[in-house]
Amino acid sequence: DSGVTQTPKHLITATGQRVTLRCSPRSGDLSVYWYQQSLDQGLQFLIQYYNGEERAKGNILERFSAQQFPDLHSELNLSSLELGDSALYFCASSVGAGIANYGYTFGSGTRLTVV
Amino acid sequence: AQKVTQAQTEISVVEKEDVTLDCVYETRDTTYYLFWYKQPPSGELVFLIRRNSFDEQNEISGRYSWNFQKSTSSFNFTITASQVVDSAVYFCALNWRNKLVFGAGTILRVKS
Fold first, then answer.
1. Taking residues B84-108, what's their average pLDDT?
2. Which of A40, A53, A22, A46 is nearest to B99 (CA)?
3. Shortest CB distance from A56 goes to which of B50, B98, B102?
């Protein structure tokens, strides 16, 4: 158990729908990162939050949004879902805002299937 | 731009063979970190190693060893006496501005 908890583990939904993925970071970690792993794009960074504030943004679609709450858990909201959004979504956490000197612990992922 | 290349898409070996997974990176940063992750069939990403750019000493952990060569921008990973449980996808990654840039991964199949 990495200490990073992601729920749900699997999600099947229809095109056009909206879903919310949840991540609880490892105890003591202030940063949360979201990654998408798809067959065609590989592992891609989406967004980072540090202590409630957005810190870095990657190739995140406008249909996707995220936030980090005061208890440090984070949610990734995916809306107007398309077939191409089917992927494994990972959350990772680290102690600090930057990756230098800090480890990166991944959760076990949420597998999203859009039908 | 930061880039990680894992040229080997898939490698198949027989148990007990040694296998080396290649990783070549590109970065303009003078300080950077390199990582290896393992993704077994169950799907989770398992951290294997982190190496900073100032430490070029090779590292060994059990059957795993890593060879970091700044001169060739490579950070290769060797598994000695491979086992079926080593079958997984292995990713090399480079940090850049708070995020990890991953290579495409190498699928390792170890047959008994």
1. 94
2. A46
3. B98
